[in-house]
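Can anyone check this?
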Amino acid sequence: PFSGALVRGTEVVANEAFAGGGIAVTGTSRASLVDIVSNTIVANEATGERGGNPLGGGIHFDGQVVSDPAGGLLNNIIALQIAGAGIYCDGIGASPTIRYCCVYNDDATNAAEEYSGNCTDRSGISGNIRANPLLCCEPACDNVGPPPPDMALTVASPCVGAGEGGADMGAHAAKVGCGVISIESSSWGAIKSRYR
């Protein structure tokens, strides 16, 4: 009686669709089980809209959508969408469980709400946060390369240790020195010895 979606540990970056620029989940009259865990869903775009509101740049849920009790939306970063809400729930049956997720839109780029349609704002509930995730690729996370953007968390990210059980949110752990060139003092002899 159910269909399902299992998406784990992926990057979903710089995609465009009418509804659900990153991921679209559509249930039938029976229901869809959702298990979307530890993903980084960034810089996507929804081109369709309802009532002037784009239909989910990050994720669009439609129809009868229920969550896997062990999963649902868990430990995800759904942030910095180009157009559309981070999460859009279309219809009263579209009610996924959302836990330990960072859902954030930069108002300078995208004024859409983080949660829209029938999704109520879950910030501050069940470990969910609304904050810039401070990814290594910022401010150009929509540049798909080459080289591809670095979706790791900076060590200053509010997503570090904020996931379920103290895990990092998103597909990648924090990265020390992302985008930083390491400089250390050394003697000329030590430098020459590295290139023999």
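Reply from J.R.: I decoded it. The helical segments are 188-193.
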